[in-house]
Write a structure and sequence with these properties.
This protein is mostly helical and 84 residues long. The protein has one domain. 63% of the residues lie in helices and 0% in strands. The chain contains 4 helices and no strands. It is globular and about 35 Å long. The termini are far apart. Pfam families: RHH_1.
Length: 84
């Protein structure tokens, strides 16, 4: 699949939503924005269950209250690889 790099400008509130989502979901900005576009165009590839949705909301709240508790995605990946 060909990939193109695109620069976009976001209002501060949308930028903050993207940043909070990527921190909680341990995903890149590109992944979060790509999913948002797929959802907008009705091609969502991920729909959280109610339990996942509750966990995401709890994670966003925790990240807001205690930003130092948010882990870097590379750290999470390393821990997951170590479990294999």
């Amino acid at each position: 699949m060909a990939v193109r790099k695109v620069a976009i400008t976001l209002p501060e509130e949308l930028y903050e939503l993207v940043e909070r989502a990527r921190a909680v979901e341990h995903r890149s900005r590109s992944e979060v924005i790509q999913e948002a576009l797929r959802t907008y165009f009705s091609e969502a590839d991920y729909r959280p269950s109610e339990a996942e949705r509750a966990a995401l909301v709890a994670g966003l709240e925790e990240a807001h209250v205690a930003p130092m508790s948010v882990r870097d995605w590379s750290e999470v990946q390393a821990r997951l690889r170590a479990r294999r």
